[in-house]
Fold this protein.
Amino acid sequence: MPRRKPAFSLLALTRAYQRNLRALARATRAAPLARVKQKPPAAAPRTVAARGTAAAARAPASRGLWKSGVAPGPAGARRFHLYLPPGPPLRPGQTLPLLVMLHGCDQTGRDLADLSRMQRLAARERFLVLYPEQERLANAHGCWNWFERRSGKADAEAATLLAAVDLVARRHPVDLGRVAVAGLSAGASMAALMAARYPHRFCAVAMHSGVAPGAADSAATALAAMHGRRDAHLPEPAGVPGAPGAAAAAALQGGAGLGAPLAPLAAGGAALARHLPPLLVVHGDADRVVSLRNAETTAQAWAQALGARPGAPRVVRRGQRHATRVTEYRTRGRAVVVLREVQGLGHAWSGGTARKPYSDPDGPDASALIWAFVARQWGS
């Protein structure tokens, strides 16, 4: 989430959060995964042409290949790392699903890969994983600018991330009908924004410890949103005539290869309700950085837009891992929103790698939960 910067003060943030960020910064510098060498930042906005893929690197304890590149978009250029699963050669015309994973503040895409180990599931289940990276020129602490909607920066970054998806799809066998997006913390907030702005482009979205979409529109309102003092307001789809970013989205579809064009949408929330993808929310009830209320308001707002009703909560526990309070919101017999409140989990990836910042190995495996949820939408 946003840290201290000239735009607004974070003096009210807890000392625990500050300690976590310092620890995370130290861990980032010492991360074992190879990093792509960064070029000096160009003046914004940048229009760097996509580079060819870098030499492949293997992720720990998984097979397959890593490839890296750069995608240009309305917010400038963003680097990315793509995991390609192993397996026999694909038949002509055969494609694979894609999961987009968005990191939190003071992380990189490689850090989230090391933390979540989503590529292990991708190797076994055979899907691609895309880890985009925020530029420090765009945010000094590597946070996705999910809260900068008033200035247009948030929507520009969402469009740029979507452009990265399409660049990858032009180079690799991606099934654009089976693309999902997930994120941690600031990445979770951006994932929800992307799914709300481009609902036709994603079959599922997963938020882990994120702020409710639309709860902030500037840096000045982000802190209150993190503390759960602002309500969710689902953004309009980019295809709504007259909506913010509609012209940019139309231009991108025509010139930046954003895949199949968006279906016509009527103005207003009803159109959004018809096209929102299913949502999974994972949040710890001991999170002192991002209030649990964000998880609850996100699930309720998303479900209301989809016309779904909550079922009776149930408590699930596997072995010695933290118990989880699960609430499913259903419509027409289908769970379209699932809220998982993990008991005793702080601001950390549930079931993540041991001894890593923002990771709690004692929680239920969030990567497996996300995969299971997304796979149902993929029809796997």
